[in-house]
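Support request from a user on the community tier.

User writes: "When I paste my C-alpha cells into the form, the page sometimes reloads and wipes my input. The last time it worked, I copied everything first. Here is what I submitted, just in case something in the input itself triggers the reload:"
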C-alpha cells in the first residue's frame, strides 16, 4: 500500500502496516526503503496468501520507521512518495504474480492467461483487494496482515 500500505488508502496503496500491533514512527531514519508484508486473504471463500515487497521512493529518503517492523503511514496524499509493489498471491487453485505502483497493480495468473488490475485499500492491518476497480463488475477480497518486516 499514496500511502499499499492510512485511511483505508485514502485512495493510495499500502498505507498502514505495523506488524503485530507495534506501530513505529514513520519517515526519516536509516535503513532500507523496502519492506515485506504477508497477508492471509479470503478469496471468495478460498484461503490465499498475499506476499508483497513494497519499495518506498521519496525525495527525502527512507519513509519506513526505525526498527525491524515497517510502518507505512508517513505520507498520505502528499505525492512525495511513490510505492512500488511486487509479489505473489497463492491459493490452492491458482498462483498470481503482482507488479504495481501506488494503489494499483497488474496481476497475472502464472498458470494461465488471466490478467487484471487490482486496487489496494488499506485500513490498519486490513487490506481489501478490489479486482477490476474500473469495471466490469468490481469484486473485493479481504485480507489480514500476518507479518511485516524491513528487507
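"...and here is what came back when it finally went through:"
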Amino acid at each position: 500500500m499514496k500511502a499499499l500500505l492510512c485511511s483505508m488508502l485514502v485512495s493510495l496503496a499500502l498505507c498502514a502496516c505495523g506488524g503485530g500491533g507495534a506501530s513505529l514512527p514513520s519517515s526519516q531514519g536509516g535503513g532500507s526503503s523496502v519492506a515485506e508484508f504477508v497477508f492471509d486473504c479470503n478469496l471468495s471463500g478460498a484461503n490465499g496468501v498475499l506476499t508483497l515487497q513494497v519499495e518506498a521512493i521519496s525525495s527525502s529518503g527512507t519513509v519506513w520507521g526505525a526498527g525491524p517492523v515497517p510502518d507505512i503511514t508517513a505520507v498520505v496524499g502528499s505525492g512525495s512518495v511513490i510505492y512500488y509493489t511486487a509479489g505473489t498471491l497463492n491459493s490452492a487453485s491458482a498462483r498470481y504474480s503482482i507488479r504495481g505502483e501506488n494503489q494499483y497493480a497488474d496481476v497475472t495468473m502464472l498458470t494461465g492467461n488471466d490478467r487484471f488490475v487490482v486496487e489496494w485499500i488499506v485500513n490498519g492491518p486490513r487490506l481489501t483487494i478490489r479486482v477490476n476497480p474500473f469495471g466490469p463488475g468490481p469484486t473485493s477480497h479481504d485480507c489480514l496482515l500476518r507479518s511485516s518486516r524491513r528487507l
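Agent notes: The reload is a front-end session timeout and is unrelated to the input. The two ends are 16 Å apart (CA to CA). Residues 1-30, 73-77 have pLDDT under 50 and may be disordered. Escalated to web team.
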